[in-house]
Amino acid sequence: MEEEKLERSIRKSEIPGLTREEEEAQLAKVIGIAEQNLEQAKADIRLANEDLADLMETYDAKEAEGLALWNNATAKLNAYQHGMARLEKARKKPYFGRIDFQDPRLSFLESYYIGRVGISDEKAEPVVLDWRAPISSVYYENSTGPCSYTVSSEGTFSIDLKRKRTYEIENDHLKDFFDSDVVANDELLTKYLAKNKKAVLGEIIATIQQEQNLIIRRSPKTNLIVQGVAGSGKTTVAMHRISYILYNYEEDFRPEDFYIIGSNRILLNYITSVLPELDVYGIRQMTMEQLFIRLLYEDWDEEKYMVHTIDRADEKNSIKGGSGWFFDLENFCRTYEAEQIPREPVRLEKTGTLLLDAEYIDNYCREQSTLSMEGKMCMLNEILLAKFENEVSGKEVTFPAREKKALKRKYEKYFGDGKWRGSIFDLYLQFLEQQAEKGKAVEVPENSFDVYDLAALAYLYKRIKENDPVREASHVVIDEAQDFGMMAYQVLHYCLRDCTYTIMGDTSQNIHFSYGLNDWEELKKLILTGTYDAFGVLRKSYRNTVEISDFANEILRHGDFAIYPVEPVLRHGTAVRKEAFDDEEALLAAGVQTIKTWQAQGYETIAVVCRDEAEAADTARKLKQYVPVVEEDLETAEFGEGVMVLPVAYTKGLEFDAVLLLDPTEEKYPENDGQVKLLYVAATRALHELAVLYTGELTGILAKEAPKGRHNQEFAMETLTKAKEYEKVSLTQKEAREENRAIGIQEMDERNSHGPKRIVIKPEQRPGMALGNTSTTGTAVMAKGSTATRRAAAETGEEIAAKTMQQRAPEGVSSIFAGAAYHGKAGGKAPGSRRSAGTQAGMQYGTGTAGVQSAKRPGGAGMVPGEAEKTERLNTSPYAFGAIPENELLRIKGHSKIKCAVKWAKKGKSAVEIASMYGILRITPITPEVIRISFVKGVTAKVQDTYWKPKADTAFPWSAKESKTAVLVETEKLRVMVEKKDGAVQFLTPDNKPILSEKRDEPRMIDGGMTWTFFDWSGSEKLKAKGCPKVVVCDLAREDMAEAVEDAFRYGKLVLASITYNGEAFPFMRTFIENLTERNYQNRTIGLIENGSWAPTAAKVMKGMFEKSKNITWLENNVKIMSSLSDENVAEIDAMAEELCK
């Protein structure tokens, strides 16, 4: 009855029918659309190739303009080719699944087909959904009935899944289809697994299982460790996860943000060949050794140093792989640092005043764990210098200018000049000598290093020498993770900060038994520290037949270690063949015959597994006389069709149609736990056939029954469930605006009952004062008289919103858009906000509570009702201050996790300045009820005055105190406290009741339900805000000269900025101008910015180079910088921006 209702509903809903005839008609329709798309792509590629041919005929090979156009055309061609590759996949097999469902908000049924790639018709309407689309998760994870799916930044949606249909399509023919009420269909999976390796790869997307899908679709912003039994698809899942992340998180992750770490080059070459099939290009892949070499930067000399594989048989070397070795290295560095950084108290000459005591220096070095020793020296010098300047300013004891200058020079380099001149290689040898004295002697490397030597060197570089941190990766995927000891992970965790991990492995396959991972506990404690970090288990083995799986499990039973239980997918095949031969000649002949038989049966990937590299090389040379063998060089060999001869260690992560385990004798594989794991790895590589051929005595691991009483323990199963972050309700932008409006109305009512309806702040008219690069960052106001904390906070937020809105220069004075703040729910972000893009030149820092929301227009930030007209009169930008521009005009810079820990604090007559790694915070008491906070990025930057009062009009009592943990500024009615450890700011009442607090774990984010996102405009965006919609900025010393020249011809106005170099313009600038003038550059407007130490001449030279160019209009407002940017220069740049935008 229910089925009939569903069919009637489908008939009414204009969605594809259910009968075979209707399904065949739908398939023909989709194939037709796919063919049209493919033909269009081919036509686009033809046109792109024609454009390239035209360029070759038109331009000389060395012409800059031609090179720029060539590069653009080539990039376009590559994009077309990638697009065509996707369309060809769609054409071969358009889809494999379908879901029909009812959205409770709609009155009709919906239906979607799901395929390897999305297919759209000529109206851009989706005909087939990409498997990575959010709603496609329903197909993989749910049985029919009520279920839900989540769209990133949109929210979680509930639907009623009515039907889930699976299709078998071959050669444009619908072979079969069937409906399923369960999550996964083992019948279809078993059918696909029976095919050879090449065919199986093409069907993986169609057969992703629920437990695999949960891993693939987990947020990349969390850490994930996955224990997967042999054949569970760990490597495949990892690759699909990368593809999913790039599809769904394109604003947060780009291909270059990923590292894939593998145990050997063959595995990485295999991954390289498969990723393009998943529409993934440009991912960086490397072995663990290569990653540590990368982290050594300029200190690694490829011509001088080499890498070797660690000797697994050397028990002495195995100690280098554990956490204990890392902790020893950590202590060694701590001791070395204590020797290099003086710990004695520093006292000021004459007065004997204590500037820094030994305890402060020691605490600072211990607490600043992310700074290198070189970085700590630099920061301690700055702290000491600030203390010195604070002490000699306005004191009774005065110093002659010469003496003061000498002291300043002394304190600037008291802890060193900031350049460590030692060698990390020599330092590592010192560490090894110290270890030997403690009874932990290992082989001392000369010029060749193993993976743990390299890990130690990378740590030493980061811990001792690094002075300019480089962000390496946003997400690291590690495959065959059990092969690396905790030493490697401890170093990675220290060196690759602020990135997340996907770690895949199987402790039963740890072939480096003495120093790899035999369980996950230690790694879990190190990596899984976040709320949503997770550990999951892939229990099912999809690779082996039942016969091969039973044989492999019997091998494991010879070991004496805990394992994770295996759940094989039932698929029967031939029995495992074990056969002995009299001599090596007979063994070789049998091996050749076995390989030829398998090839005749259609098996395309065959592995001959040997004990080590030497045996593999010898066997490959012999086999080549009878059968073709794939590349012998293990560093360059690529996984593919044919016969591969490999050491057992190099088969990790790979699988083959058939595997020949060659000569596993007792001598080669003695009975111990390490050899058990090696043979288990070898046996589980086979999809369909496994043969064991040998001479002499077969290893007891394969010949004998497993001893009783062994291997009784099994790890507890931990099923990975949907992440809590997915279950958390997310609001759409429309729902968020409606909620904000409701909150605003509620809070306005509360204010109406407690006090004035609106606080209107009228800005003081101060002609001539323009905005600098400092932002008034927030104000906390206590209402006069005794009021409730909530009322004070609400009024504080209201005033902040008003002041933020009106923080503009008076009419007629040039100014720039200085920043904006978006107020949303905790954990939210600005609508349409783009990916973080690095550091910024200044930062708008807002403070507020939920009361700010009522002062907002939906979609804007900081808009106070009734003030728009005033603001429009003052605002020279097309945007109101605090409004959020369109996506294409705005790029967010930086992020909330900035380093705000206090380095030093200095009190002046009108304010207190506090320095952190990120910049200077100025706390200015304005009245007893108002304390203003300003912030500017950069330790050496100066906090400039803005449109608002820089200091109090009338002097009044206030104080500043510094303790070991905090800096406190207080008036009679208000206190501001800054935590030294994290820089978090708190506004308090005189009796220490909180009014407003930043989060301590993420400073610049406000506690109490409010989250702020901060950004500033780059130079080009300042022009965009003034009405110049298209702006390009080129760094001629770093960017492609041809592209810069091409841009110069595209745009009508040009600004040239150069230092004076030997009385001329900088060489790159000269080359650029010569490229323009050679191509008859004319009819343009040009502005000039020059810099020099005492007599800049760059502007004169640049202008002279255009003397033969026609119709060049020169800006009246040019800029001359004398070494460093001054306030006057900032005003000149503003004036130039105004003139450019007229």
Question: Explain this structure to me?
Answer:
This protein is an alpha/beta fold and 1142 residues long. Strands 1, 2, 3, 4, 5, 6 and 7 form a 7-stranded mixed beta sheet that branches. Strands 10-9-15-16-8-17 form a 6-stranded parallel beta sheet. Strand 31 (959-962) and strand 32 (966-970) form a beta hairpin. Helix 10 (288-294) packs parallel to helix 17, helix 17 (451-465) packs parallel to helix 18 and helix 20 (546-556) packs antiparallel against helix 23 (673-683). The radius of gyration is 34 Å and the shape is globular.
Question: What is shown here, in short?
Answer:
Helices cover 35% and strands 19% of the residues. The chain has 33 helices and 41 strands.
> Helical amount among residues, as a percent range?
25-40%
Class by SSE composition: alpha/beta
Radius of gyration: 34 Å
The N- and C-terminal alpha carbons lie at a distance of 73 Å
Percentage of residues in DSSP E strands: 15-25%
Using DSSP, what is the number of strands? Answer: 41
Low-confidence stretches: 8-13, 196-202, 723-730, 750-897, 1005-1018
Number of helices: 33
Q: Major β-sheet, in short?
A: 7 strands, mixed
Question: Can you tell me the overall shape?
Answer: globular
Q: Could you tell me the mean pLDDT?
A: 75
Note the topology.
Elements lengths: L1 H11 L7 H39 L5 H29 L4 E6 L6 E7 L3 E2 L5 E5 L6 H5 L3 E7 L3 E16 L2 E7 L6 H8 L3 H7 L6 H7 L7 E5 L5 H15 L9 E5 L2 H10 L9 E4 H7 L11 E2 L7 H4 L4 H18 L5 E2 L6 E3 L1 H10 L5 H20 L8 H12 L11 H14 L10 E2 L1 H15 L9 E4 L7 H10 L4 E6 L15 H7 L6 E5 L1 E2 L4 H11 L10 E2 L8 E5 L2 H17 L4 E6 L2 H11 L18 E6 L8 E7 L10 H11 L2 E10 L4 H4 L20 H4 L5 H22 L20 E7 L7 H18 L13 E5 L43 H7 L27 E6 L4 E5 L2 E9 L2 E8 L21 E4 L3 E5 L4 E5 L5 E4 L5 E4 L13 E5 L3 H7 L15 H10 L2 E9 L2 E2 L1 H12 L5 E9 L5 H8 L6 E3 L4 E4 L4 H14 L2
Helix pairs in contact: 2-3, 3-30, 7-8, 10-17, 12-17, 12-18, 16-17, 17-18, 18-19, 20-23
